[in-house]
Design brief:
This protein is α/β, with parallel strands linked by helices and 299 residues long. It has 2 domains: 228 residues, Phosphoenolpyruvate-binding domains (TIM Barrel, Alpha-Beta Barrel), CATH 3.20.20.60; 60 residues. 46% of the residues lie in helices and 16% in strands. It has 12 helices and 10 strands. The strands form 2 sheets. An 8-stranded parallel barrel has the order 1-2-3-4-5-6-7-8, surrounded by 6 helices. A two-stranded antiparallel sheet has the order 9-10. Helix 2 runs parallel beside helix 3, helix 9 packs parallel to helix 10 and helix 11 crosses helix 12. The radius of gyration is 20 Å and the shape is globular. Bound molecules: ligand LIB3CWND and magnesium ion (MG). The site of ligand LIB3CWND has 22 residues, from strand 1, helix 1 and helix 7. Its EC number is 4.1.3.6.
């Protein structure tokens, strides 16, 4: 089983060259180089150049590189998409998705300009329509030609559009997160939680990471370098989880259990569905360890 950890996914404004440079040494699993909401209209063209230069120039090691473009119907959208595709990032993040058509249109443009199929598409779930259409949007993930591989929650825009209150328990946000999570899982997509704006509040941030992980998120989008470490920690399988997962795998490998659907392990019922979960836990832990080793060699 191969999995790509996406625990920590850090945004940075495309206009901020210092941040683009600094990100090369931050232990984030993925970086989103933003051309959209963090970039003022008068800085859009320059940000596009910075971001393309950064991706083309490389130096980001094992980090997944994602460019967030402006929506295709905006004045910058098509130029962003063409420029982003030309430097072949791992993915292009489409903002303000409302319906499957928004993703299909982007995929068609990418095909028309012969962007290699390794350039995937990620979708921002941040409009009320995206939540209502979560199933249909996620279903595109079943067709590799649409390139869709990940959903990203845009909780700031959802709060704005819904006029809900941004409280620490996220009472208004949870139903949207849950709808998007089941849609992602139904069609084999990864899904990332929204950002925590109060970046100096580590306690609140940690609580929100735990909350996202409990709901089933694969990782969290971030806005500041200080958030990367705690986020990696919370979205990594714990030592206890990995140890239990290895025991489950070993138990089912015993000759007496190979044909069994259910066994007892340390007083607990364990079924083959737990074996599937255990294999995933170990695969993620192994992938994290492999990334750590690569990083050591890199520096
Ligand atoms: C939030 C910030 C504006 C804070 O910036 P600043 O006050 O400059 O922070 P610091 O002085 O603490 O910075 C310390 C050093 O770290 C670098 N830095 C800061 N942020 C980043 C980053 N995101 N990536 C890489 N490096 C970063 C600074 O350059 C300092 O470096 P040095 O000078 O060498 O010490 C700022 O953090 C920021 O701009 N964050 C990202 C904002 C962003 O991208 N927003 C858009 C995405 S969020 C969103 O849109 C969500 C979604 O769409 C929704 O609807 O919810
Ligand atoms: Mg947004």
């Amino acid at each position: 089983m191969t999995v790509r950890p996406r625990r920590s996914v850090l945004y940075m404004p495309g206009a901020n060259t210092r941040a683009l440079e600094k990100a090369k040494v931050l232990p984030a699993d993925a970086l989103i180089l933003d051309l959209e909401d963090s970039v003022a209209p008068e800085a859009k063209a320059e940000a596009r150049e910075n971001v393309c230069e950064a991706v083309h120039g490389g130096g980001y090691g094992r980090r997944e590189l994602v460019i967030r473009v402006n929506a295709i119907e905006t004045a910058w959208g098509m130029d962003d998409l063409r420029a982003a595709a030309s430097v072949e990032p791992d993915a292009i993040l489409v903002p303000k998705v409302s319906s499957p058509g928004d993703i299909v249109t982007v995929a068609k443009v990418l095909d028309a300009i012969n962007a290699p199929s390794k350039v995937r598409v990620w979708a921002m779930m941040e409009t009320p329509s995206s939540i209502l259409n979560a199933r249909e949007i996620a279903a595109l993930g079943a067709d590799p030609e649409t390139r869709l591989s990940c959903l990203v929650m845009g909780t700031n825009d959802l709060l704005k559009e819904s006029r809900a209150r941004a409280l620490h328990d996220r009472v208004a946000v949870v139903p949207w997160l849950a709808m998007a999570i089941v849609a992602a899982r139904a069609y084999g997509l990864d899904i990332l939680d929204g950002v925590y704006n109060d970046f100096r509040d580590e306690i609140g941030f940690r609580a929100e990471c735990e909350h996202g992980r409990t709901l089933g998120m694969d990782g969290k989008t971030l806005i500041h370098p200080s958030q990367v470490g705690p986020c990696n920690e919370i979205f990594s399988p714990t030592v206890e989880e990995v140890s239990w997962a290895r025991k489950v795998i070993a138990a089912f490998e015993e000759p007496a259990n190979r044909q069994k659907g259910v066994i007892t392990l340390e007083g607990r019922m364990v079924e083959r569905l737990h074996l599937v979960m255990a294999r995933r836990t170990v695969a993620i832990a192994d992938a994290i360890e492999a990334m750590r080793r690569t990083e050591e060699e890199w520096f």
